[in-house]
Design goal:
Rossmann fold, Beta-lactamase, elongated
């Protein structure tokens, strides 16, 4: 199909669109490039050309130019009459007609039309728009998007922890997909104002400004940036680091007087949802940029020019077949999700699947609660429960070991004075994190702090108001004594050890490591994780105490606690122990959405590297993703859970022993497999309204879904 566009570089007559140009259709396509297939015009009903008075003249010119088929021609009867006249005069030759007719008949024959049977139209759109077509379209868009300016390495956008990003729209058409995808990488604020001075005032605290020019689709879309918008662009570019992304013809750049103040310029060519999606991924370095200009833009950017930019291994977003997964098999997850909701295993859930660094399945099901007032969506934030151990406690433990603060055989008594001389004094880091250290599984601290038949929190420990004496928020209007955290550490130190040395899961080491890490690095664990990991990753929903940072409407409630806090836990951590640590613990307390959980898991999968930054060395990750006591029946690595060695259902039993992950009490789960490069995230609030409902766990739903993902692998 030949575009109905004016291309002065290929056709001197600027009023002659390419679909009517003999130089382009015959000279370039057929003779120079040797194309022998069918040639179709673009839609001829869009607009005429100044050189032709009527539709029939346009149709004749299209055939004379070398096209075989006319798309949406007008005045068909008059066109046939005009072509007959041209034939009788010799303008339209029999040889020319014969060439097209033969190609058309051969194509019909190859399509089986010589034995015509009525077409079944039940799945016509699906039959016409195949997965292969979708993949090819993605490849074409990825290959075409062109980077023409990149001053001081403004692209890809990096250092997300200190690089606040704003977006401004010029043009009047759709930009929804672009905004949505940009925000998958970091918080990108949409700025609107009425004047340049107002824009500059609102942009004072932003380091980078993305300006998107969004125009309508079609050959005759107005690609010219309006004068007032040009003035706005130039004014902002004088004061800020600006990336201009043109979702239109590259000729949009012609009206810009100088490109000097524009740090980045991207040409995305068309304002489709796919172009917006892929272009946003490129801005953040998830995909290579390799396109080249098809035309000259003044003397600044010549035909064939384009800067090449390699990806920096951030998560991308695509379709299952792009990474060797079968979408029809992944769709079976929908049925499992429906069963979960219909059977009241949980009011809602979310599943994410990524492979080869691309998220290809990201679906939300059900509602926040059973009253079905609010639907779960991709932005919904969940209490991750014990998934915190590998996303909240473990990252800083790995960093501390790499920094030489301890080694794996360091006794806990040397690191933590509270354990010195206790029955845990000589337990090593390796043993504790492998859950092979005789430690009790947990300590129900709160049970000695409530009284009466209603389990009322004792006044000597709790207050309904915050103060210097009662500063630890346990839930809404419930504050624990400030000095009680030391009591928790003391209770852990004094707790009796189990008699048998065998594998037994315990959260106690992650309480102790919180205190250790905070003293070694001089910051609270939540700030350490945010500064070293979450902010640089752009994982902005991975937070402790989310009510301080995330709208409550985005947070999924957990349990209606009737035995300790006596309220619906909605944004306050579900785990009682973590709550008594002020919501911040290495054991539990972390909240997040699936996309941000996947960023951490992908960073682990890439052995500490993500988005152009090394968070720790590959050998450090390998050291922790290893079973040290496998011969003693311990399936776990250091902190990481790993596939089962017996009949227990830690995983589906169908992933490699290199896999790592963790589950959470609230109904959460995440695993990654280095062999298949799959990252899987499952989030739910199965404890709503009460933890007594464990249908989700009893049916092994999380590992059933994991099995379906494995079955979908087709390469």
């Amino acid at each position: 199909m030949v575009a109905h566009l004016s291309v002065p570089a290929l056709e001197e007559n600027v009023s002659l669109p390419s679909s009517l140009s003999h130089n382009i259709v015959t000279g370039l396509l057929k003779e120079e490039l040797g194309f022998k297939g069918l040639i179709v015009t673009d839609a001829l009903n869009m607009r005429g050309s100044a050189d032709f008075a009527s539709s029939e003249e346009i149709n004749l010119q299209a055939i004379l130019a070398g096209n075989d088929l006319l798309d949406v021609p007008l005045e068909v009867a008059k066109s046939i009459a005009l072509m007959k006249k041209a034939y009788s005069k010799g303008t339209l030759t029999e040889e020319r007609l014969d060439e097209s007719v033969r190609k058309i008949l051969k194509t019909k024959y190859r399509a089986g039309l010589s034995n015509y049977k009525p077409l079944v139209t039940d799945n016509l759109m699906k039959d016409l728009n195949t997965i292969e077509d979708d993949l090819m379209n993605r490849r074409l868009v990825e290959s075409s998007i062109t980077l023409v300016q990149n001053k001081n390495g403004v692209l890809p956008i990096s250092e997300l922890e200190k690089n606040r990003v704003a977006y401004i729209k010029i043009g009047k058409h759709n930009n929804r997909t672009f905004i949505k995808r940009l925000n998958d990488y970091t918080k990108v604020d949409v700025i609107k104002a009425g004047s340049l001075s107002e824009y500059l005032n609102k942009l004072k605290n932003y380091e980078t400004v993305i300006v998107g020019f969004h125009t309508s689709l079609g050959a005759y879309a107005n690609y010219k940036i309006a004068d007032d918008e040009l003035a706005l662009l130039e004014g902002i570019a004088k004061k800020h680091k600006v990336i201009l992304n043109v979702f239109a013809s590259p000729y949009s750049l012609l009206k810009i007087k100088s490109y000097e103040n524009l740090d980045g310029i991207i040409v995305s060519y068309q304002n489709t949802a796919l172009a917006q999606d892929i272009s946003a991924q490129m801005i953040f370095g998830a995909l290579d940029i390799k396109g080249m200009l098809p035309v000259n833009i003044k003397d600044d950017f010549k035909y064939g020019y384009g800067l090449q930019l390699a990806s920096i291994d951030r998560l991308g977003y695509s379709i299952p077949e792009d990474v060797g997964l079968d979408r029809s098999k992944l769709k079976k997850i929908d049925s499992v999700a429906a069963m979960v909701i219909d059977s009241a295993m949980a009011p809602g859930l979310h599943v994410l699947v990524a492979r080869h660094g691309k998220v290809v399945f990201r679906e939300s099901y059900g509602h926040y609660t059973y009253d079905q007032k609010k639907k779960v969506d991709n932005n919904s934030v969940y209490d991750l429960a014990s998934v915190t151990k590998i996303l909240g406690g473990l990252p800083m433990i790995i960093k501390a070991e790499e920094d030489g603060k301890f080694d794996l055989d360091s006794p806990l008594g040397e690191l933590m004075p509270v354990l010195k001389g206790s029955n845990k004094d000589t337990v090593t880091v390796r043993e504790a994190l492998s859950h092979y250290a005789k430690l009790k599984p947990y300590i129900p601290y709160y049970e000695t702090m409530v009284e009466g038949d209603e389990n009322t929190p004792m006044e000597k420990y709790f207050s309904s108001k915050s103060s210097s004496k009662y500063s630890i928020k346990v839930a809404e209007n419930l504050y624990l004594r400030t000095d009680y955290q030391d009591t928790i550490y003391k209770l852990i130190a004094e707790a009796p050890q189990r008699e048998e040395l065998e594998y037994k899961y315990s959260g106690l080491p992650f309480y102790l490591f919180k205190d250790y890490l905070e003293k070694v690095y001089g910051q609270s664990l939540d700030k350490l994780n945010a500064n070293y990991f979450y902010k640089p990753l752009g994982a902005n929903t991975l937070v402790y105490n989310p009510l301080n940072k995330i709208p409550k409407s985005n947070i999924v409630p957990t349990e209606d606690d009737s035995f300790f806090r006596h309220q619906l836990l909605h944004g306050n951590v579900h785990d009682e122990g973590a709550a008594m640590m002020g919501g911040v613990s290495g054991n539990a307390g972390l909240f997040g959405n699936s996309n941000d959980v996947a960023k951490m898991m992908q960073m682990y999968l890439q052995k500490g590297y993500y988005g152009g930054k090394s968070y720790f060395k590959p050998e450090s990750f390998d050291k922790f993703n290893r079973r040290y006591f496998e011969e003693n029946g311990v399936r776990r690595g250091l902190g990481f859970d790993k596939p089962q060695l017996d009949e227990s259902m830690a995983t589906c039993g169908c992933i490699s022993f290199k896999s790592f992950g963790h589950s959470g009490y609230t109904g959460t789960y995440t695993f990654a497999d280095p062999e298949t490069e799959i990252v899987y995230v499952f989030l739910s609030n199965r404890v709503y309204p009460t933890r007594e409902n464990n249908k989700l766990g009893d049916a092994d739903i999380r590992t059933v879904v994991q099995g379906l993902i494995q079955e979908s692998i087709i390469d």
